[in-house]
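Protein modeling request. Please complete all fields; requests missing the sequence field cannot be processed.
Requester role: graduate student
Desired output: 3D structure, token encoding
Chains: 1
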Amino acid sequence: AQVREAFAKVAARGDDTAIRTVEPPVAGPRRVTLRRRGASPSVMVSFLAPPPSRPGDYASLMLLDAVLSGPRGLSFRGAENDQTAGAGAEPGSRLGRALASSAAERFGSAFVPTLYPYHYSIYASPKEGRSPDEIPPTVFASLAEAAASVTPQEVDKARRRIAAALLLETDSPVDLAHELAFWTGLGGLQVREAIVRELSTAGAAQVRALARTFVPGDAVIGVLLPEDEDRAGPSPTPGPAPTSPMASTSASSSHGIPSPAQGSARSSAADAAPELRPARTATVETLDLGPRARAIVDARPSQKTFVLEVAATFDPAGGTRSAGAGRLRAAARGLREDTGELEILGDLGVRFTIREPAADAPFSERDALRVGLAGPAPALAAALVAFAPAFRRALGTTGRADEARSTDPETLALQRLDEALAPPPATGAGAQGPRSAPTPNAPSGLPDVGLALVSPYPSASLRDLLAALVPDRAAPRAAGPAGGATGQPGGASAPFPPGRRVETLPAIAQGRLLFAFPGGADADALRALTWILHHDYGGRLGVRAIAELGLVYSMDSEAVTRGRPLAVVTMGAAPEKLPDLEKALGEVLDQAAAALSDREVADYRSFAQGDLAVRLADPAKAARLWSAALLEGEDHRGPKARVERARALTRERVADLARRALAAGSRLTILVTRDGASPVP
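Delivered output (681 residues):
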């Protein structure tokens, strides 16, 4: 009503003046080869794809992609990186099954809802020692197989999983607002609604018909090679005859048709799952599930989906690189290969993600195994029953997998920071190659487990289901130091030796600059100082590097308050510009404490309060918030308590920390540059 009142008086301006374009048909196959310094070899096979304005064809494209690679919904915001950079093909998809017998290390797919016809693309990166030219024949073989053999069972499974994705991407006010705006720009919400209707009726015949239009003669093949790669000819080099993606699977399971064992497993999971009833009122509670396991249960009666975040760690204090990270890394890899119960999750429309311990963002969780489940709320109980045995088996893994030295500048810089935090090894460590010896043997026993669940259901009905995820709760390992935002061991001591470290990688296009600062005992002041230095595209470092110097496109920062407190700010730039960037930002840091203003601290106080409200409004962000709180040693009251403490922050407290933490003799600088590009001062 308010919108009509404001805009109904505006007179119409005549006919629609939108430009209408028609994409000409592709006149035969095309191939484009690009060579860039430091590029990793990759291949893209692309076809013209139907737009959302043809809802039947677009629905068939969504179903075909779900069969080939994995399901996605209609939200551009919810998966914009997947849709533009390529979502990795799931292990059980047709492209995922083709990996073992192909030259590709990874397959992915991408398409974007647009006003006009766009592209459907399949991405791949070759295995070491294999040629990119071997990959397109496998892609064409997979499409030909789909055109001839997609079954109703596969389409039904894809339809269920897409329906779950549609629920997940519209179960928060922010996501709903984005969908309203985005689809209005593509012709109106009725376009989206028409696609959803077509998804419910499109069958295998329509999916096979669309697949038949994606043929080699209409493909555009893009190949990216490093500059020093041997130059390829104008046409693809014939590779070995592609193996059918279905050849390695049995007749009963190759098209998504459950085998008798799989079918009985699904039935037993559903039969064993208790019936859950929504909570009467919204509540948030913390449950103790055993000596070393806790859960935060956020019950929202009106929610249609559930989001579960699981974190496991052998080092609840998070002070140094954990010896148990290698064991949890092996657990993560074993969990990915455990296709028994986990196959059921896909049938239930449940999304399953694994993040193994790594020196990556967020840096404070580098020692933790992270697992996520998300799907329709009615599937929660069956999903937990199916997932629990596989998760218990994974946590019982006694093997160990080390983290290899990364060739990605951003990850390598964080690895070097991680090593700076580690205690000196008892024996000499190798300088290059996989990080093998520096950490002690993996601990015995079982890790600590934190579970964060956002769903419509109350904690009382979920306690037993969540407790079943924790193995051998009656035999906890020996307790370690308690975690938490305050009182960490060594909280006031320097978490790393200060100085400057330089790493080099051959032929990289982007280098990396990382600053790390000790945090001291005031975790709240550390969070404020980190935000003042950088947030989004702003903050003192952000404005200087991005807006004024124009040397950096994006930056990342984090206040690490778990374990020994520190702050880290990292950014990418051309290797030859890193010395200038380091000098300019060093000057900003040298002057920050003296120039700190009351307005900056007040802005942070406002941000802290608003950020909590935004995170709690989104179920996925809320689950991550609760999971992070558990890793910090907090319960469900922790995030709100942090906001209350932020209100009491003063400029003097933040400036006092800045004087000590940002001093040149206190901070650690790490540069990752190209061989010969950046002289060491």
